[in-house]
Amino acid sequence: MPENVPDHLASGPRVGIRPYTYEDAAEFTARARESKDLHQPWLFPPVSADAYTAYARRLIEDPTKAGFLVCELSHDGEGAEGAEGAGGTTADGAIAGFININNIVEGGFLSGALGYGAFAHAAGRGLMGEGLGLVVRHAFGAMRLHRLEINVQPGNAASIALARRCGFRHEGFSPDFIYMDGAWRDHERWAITVEMTRTP
User: Fold this and answer.
1) 186 CB burial (10 A radius; 0-12, 13-18, 19+)
2) Strands, DSSP E only, in 7-157?
3) Which of 76, 99, 113, 161 has its CA at 20 to 30 Å from residue 145's CA atom?
């Protein structure tokens, strides 16, 4: 874990969310390499230091984007269980995954498009569901957005299940929507608005 890590913007029982830093390159890219079989053909996060720097720069400097690392929390001085990898370490702050808000539009829209991925050591443990809930609350709170949208390829069952579990509604189907892995891919559209998160 890099030194001078920024504070968590929000935290839950097992994870916190914080911004990317350039110093996260070594851990992020190691975990991305470990997770290649899990991610492809759906995701292609950076696996080299140079690619990570360019990727992180967009999320750090572009006002139409916001990037969040989902990091495990440890309790009572013990490392987060199951956080091994990226050098075999088990430590508070291990990166479990990432959630990015792209195409942030202000004015009458106040919306953004979400993309996310778990790393292999964290998959299936419920950490990304907790992290996505934290990002949604942060987006509708501090960021003052009204709507978040997730576009998912129909065959990506894990991402669709995560969207459903976190309260996103299925809104439609967009053929030939995003150019990925050498072709225009169909996507399902899932979304949540701030009204959907309010308790009656």
Assistant:
1) middle
2) 10-11, 15-18, 66-72, 95-105, 111-118, 147-152
3) 161
Q: Say how far apart CA 161 and CA 129 lie, in whole Å.
A: 10
Tokens 């990015």 locate to 100
Q: How far apart are CA 147 and CA 144, in angstroms?
A: 10
Q: What is the pLDDT along the chain (200 residues), one digit of tens a residue?
A: 566 677 899 999 999 999 999 999 999 999 999 999 989 888 899 999 999 999 999 999 999 999 999 999 975 444 433 444 443 334 568 999 999 999 999 999 999 999 999 999 999 999 999 999 999 999 999 999 999 999 999 999 999 999 999 999 999 999 999 998 889 999 999 999 999 998 76
88 is written with which tokens? 């075999």
Domains of the chain in start order, with CATH, are: 10-197 (3.40.630.30)
Phi-psi region of 30 (alpha: psi -120 to 50; beta: other; left: phi over 0): alpha
| Neighbouring-strand partners of residue 115 | 100
Contact 6, 18 (CB under 8 A): yes
E strand or H helix at 39, and its extent?
A: helix 36-39
